[in-house]
Amino acid sequence: MKQDQTEDIQQMRKFPIVAVLLPGAFLAILNQTLLAPAIPVLMDELHITENTAQWVMTIFMLVNGIMIPITAFLIETFTTRRLFLFAMTVFAVGTVICAISPNFGLLMVGRIIQAAGAGIMMPLMMTVFLLIFPIEKRGTAMGTVGLVIGFAPAIGPTLSGWLLEQYSWRVLFYIVLPLVLIDIVIAYFVMKNVTMRTFPKVDVLSIILSTFGFGGLLYGFSSAGNYGWSSVAVISSILIGVISLTIFIRRQFTLKQPILEFRVFKNKTFRITTVIGMIAFLGLIAAETILPIYMQNMAGYTPLDTGLVLMPGALLMGLMSPINGRIFDRFGARWLVIIGLTLLTVTSFLYTQLTASTSLTYLAVVFAVRMLGVSMVMMPATTAGLNQLPNRLIPHGTAMNNTMRQVAASIGTGILVTVMTSAALATGTEATVGDEIHGVNVSFYVATFLSLAGLVLAFFIKGTTPAEERAAMVDDQ
């Protein structure tokens, strides 16, 4: 993108664009966590296991991850306005299907369609924000994105928990639908075109390979809890995933216009911050999936109790995200990320000590500190990595970052739920609550180890501020 075009974009009126993109992203993220307290309800009503029920969460994230690479192509092919309206319309169609679904199969179809629209939303919003804001203000702008990412999980589980005690789980989707339609109508009138269209060619084989790759890994790891690690279906699914992903990655380096630009990983800071973002997002989603199962199926709490436990942490994450954005603009990402991952590691360990009588206060306080840590990691790490890329690579950087984060959360959550069910001391009718809780504690031991690995990586992030990075870019030019 030329310098004068960049300046023109940064000078356009930002408020209408932000006012449309943020609610769209809010609704997309809301639907990612809205069903967390409903997992035990779905298990009971639809007669399915934990490993099957968690698919309503993980399939949403997986399809997000599959769609995000395609979004880099879509952003460079269609106008910003048209792509946003298309994404929100697809999301609305999926929401309708979920609302009227009479069984688990149709619910999954609706979730897949919802996720296809949501998968376009997040990278589109991040790309637009990074283009309309100059580098020295990106931390504050991305902090606003963090505000949305924080408040959506805050409202989602709490609203869901309250509604589930009074109505069917289908009402969750009927509430979201009118909000989606209102955003579509407003966007039709106020959304502006920001991104540049270069009309790249789409490689169908790459899309097929990425779908089989990510899908194979998720299905294999998620199904191990139901069928066992030695099952032919599990082993073959994981092998198909590994082989497909290997071919997919090798193919991207041979294409003139790759679906995912893996060359962005040549930048060390981007590489490190992407891995850290994957670990942080996994820590966020895994806790919001496992805790409701533990609280409602093992500790005897209600869906509303679950929502109330998750709410303070998610609110704290939302409130702190803009503040962390300003701190990032002034001091950079390094120490924010180090402190955040320390909190994430400590709280993961504290969740390895759960019992049948663990209090709501303990669960809520630990979760709140955990979300404070996540808020210090997610957007600062992401923005620090993307700031290292030239404008022409930002759509590819955001696509890669979001893809890796969603895939890590979906596959990682599948693995942790499988660890939870596999590590239970006993299963079936003879299993005690203590046997099942042992599995929950073991899954959080795994989460503790992952957070600790991220903390070690954080020390390799540069200690520069965005202003210093911009000055360095000018000197290089």
UniProtKB/TrEMBL annotation:
Topology in the lipid bilayer: Multi-pass membrane protein
GO MF term set: transmembrane transporter activity
Record's GO cellular component terms: plasma membrane
Membrane among keywords: yes
Species in which this protein is naturally found: Oceanobacillus limi
Keywords: Cell membrane, Membrane, Transmembrane, Transmembrane helix, Transport
SUPFAM superfamilies on file: MFS general substrate transporter
Gene3D superfamilies found in the cross-reference section: MFS general substrate transporter like domains (1.20.1250.20), Multidrug resistance protein D (1.20.1720.10)
All residue ranges annotated as the Major facilitator superfamily (MFS) profile domain in the record: 17-466
PROSITE patterns linked to this entry: MFS
Name of this chain's protein: Drug resistance transporter, EmrB/QacA subfamily
Cell membrane listed as a keyword: yes
Top-rank lineage group of the source organism: Bacteria
Subcellular location as annotated: Cell membrane
Pfam families referenced in this protein's UniProt entry, alphabetically: MFS_1
Membrane-spanning parts: 20-43, 55-76, 83-106, 112-133, 140-159, 171-190, 202-221, 227-249, 270-294, 306-323, 335-354, 360-386, 407-427, 442-461
InterPro entries the UniProt entry points to: EmrB-like, MFS, MFS_dom, MFS_trans_sf
